[in-house]
Amino acid sequence: MSNSRIKGKLRTLRCDLGFLKRADASASYEQGKAIVWCSINGPGDVMASKRLTMKMLVEISNRHVNDQDTKKLVDTLVNPIVEHAIERTKNPRTTLVITLQEMNRDGEYAPVAINSACLALLDAGIEMRYIFCAVCISYGNGVFTVDPDSVALSEAEARFIFIFKPSITDLGGKVIGCDASGVYTMEIYKEALNYARHSALKIFDFYRVKIQEKLAASLRIAG
Amino acid sequence: METTDSNLLSLASGELLKKFDPQKYFDQFLSEGVYPDGRPVSQFRESNVKTSVDRESDGSSYVQQGGACVSCTVNLSVAISSSEPGVLFTIESLGSVSEDLITDAQNFLDRLLSKNVFFDISQLDAGHNLRWTLHLKIMVLSSDGFIMDALLTAVNAAFMDTKFPSVFYPEITEEDATIDLSKVKINREKISRLTLKDTPVYSVYVLYNSWNAADVDECIVLCDPNKEICELTQNRCEIIIGKNDLIYEMSYAGKSALTETILSEIMICAKRRYGKISEGLNKIRAR
């Protein structure tokens, strides 16, 4: 693996917070040409039949996800990661409705959706156990590609999605989720993880900048 | 009489604790490194594999692994060579098995077959511009949270058991001549078997946080957990491993971090599991 090369870098990140006026919080997140919108409503009232006595009910829906592979990722990765991050005991007997809508696909849907959800949750001010971010790495012909688009993904032998939460001790963060598909060895996995860690740092920095911009704008209005 | 009454009482209190506070009930055992039935957390449940259970089909297997029972039958059909998939499968289940498990299993199997992990697709070539197609019928009879481990073992065993008769086409054909399938003759006395490239093995692990754990990332790795334990914690890691330490699928999502130490422990258990299942399947084939 010492001869493996890395190509590509994290695509340009863009985000617009609170762009949906009718939602309590929202984020339009772009990663290169991939765009996912996330809207959050709540915590709000919930029907008695669905009410949870000790914690908040979190309902996550992913719109227009049609292919089986993406549906599987949504069920095993996107929804559990978003749900686990929220501190649900703080608002019992309420509901939080999170809607993720894919506007444009260019690469994997799951990492873009996860990052969009985290930004929307930060915009909403929902108490979270930790913030989180997702990075996709592909591997093919001895070369790793960071944040591959659809073309690079179609040529890959293996595809890795890593989800991180911030950590003081681990570079990039601690791994709280991963989905690795293809034909690979543990050495390839570890090398992909190493590249993903560097990208995760940049995404967490991006979150910081975006929230600072939002809060600075709010302070200007208040001031 | 008193001894029987006190035994019944202690049994009842154990069941009551399990019902009202399952976390505390299981924590007593798991923090000591064992499941309530006495099985160590690093040990998998026993597997029972039988082949040639259905004499009518060209290959079949029945697997009982943990709480899951799966049967798999293979039927062959011959057709003109084309780019269509060489292996077609359906997964059916009895009512008690959840639809989500079946959908997951279909996705996993689809991806493994598309990677040609089991055998070289050129082995389906029957000669005379003809090709075999394998029709797998997988029936999930029961489950205990997971079915993919038993299902994959059943598919591996069924492939090993499949007997290919020889095909004879009486007229000499040119490459682009039309083949009349009604003239194809099958000789069931001369059979051959598939040479499998790999027998991928699925295993599932849960990262359990004890009540007393100081840190949410301090976890115990539980091998082959049952349904009740999976409901306690959402930290689940699934892995499909092949020979020469190749990994075909791996997924994890949870609250606790998947550290390098935990991942190494999971890989050791997965490789050990692969070794045992492969050895067992090779013994069955050798009989």
UniProtKB/TrEMBL annotation, chain A:
Localization, UniProt: Nucleus
Domain of life according to the entry: Eukaryota
Keyword check for Secreted: no
Pfam families: RNase_PH
UniProt cross-references to InterPro entries, sorted A to Z: ExoRNase_PH_dom1 (IPR001247), ExoRNase_PH_dom2_sf (IPR036345), PNPase/RNase_PH_dom_sf (IPR027408), Ribosomal_Su5_D2-typ_SF (IPR020568), RNase_PH (IPR050080)
Residues in Exoribonuclease phosphorolytic domain copies: 10-127
Matches recorded under CDD domains: RNase_PH_RRP46
Any one of the GO BP annotations: nuclear mRNA surveillance
One GO CC term on file: nucleolus
Keywords, alphabetical: Exosome, Nucleus, rRNA processing
GO molecular function: RNA binding
Family assignment from sequence similarity: Belongs to the RNase PH family.
Protein known as: Exoribonuclease phosphorolytic domain-containing protein
Biological source species: Acrobeloides nanus
TrEMBL record, chain B:
Native organism taxonomy: Eukaryota, Metazoa, Ecdysozoa, Nematoda, Chromadorea
Full protein name: Ribosomal RNA-processing protein 43
Keyword Cell membrane: no
Gene3D superfamilies for this protein: GHMP Kinase, N-terminal domain
GO function terms (MF aspect): mRNA 3'-UTR AU-rich region binding
Keywords: Cytoplasm, Exosome, Nucleus, RNA-binding, rRNA processing
Subcellular location: Cytoplasm; Nucleus, Nucleolus
Family annotation (PANTHER family): EXOSOME COMPLEX COMPONENT RRP43, EXOSOME COMPLEX EXONUCLEASE RIBOSOMAL RNA PROCESSING PROTEIN
Family the entry assigns: Belongs to the RNase PH family.
Single GO biological process annotation from the record: TRAMP-dependent tRNA surveillance pathway
Pfam families named among the record's database cross-references: RNase_PH (PF01138)
InterPro entries (UniProt xref): ExoRNase_PH_dom1, Exosome_comp_Rrp42_subfam, PNPase/RNase_PH_dom_sf, Ribosomal_Su5_D2-typ_SF
Segments forming domain Exoribonuclease phosphorolytic: 43-165
Originating species: Acrobeloides nanus
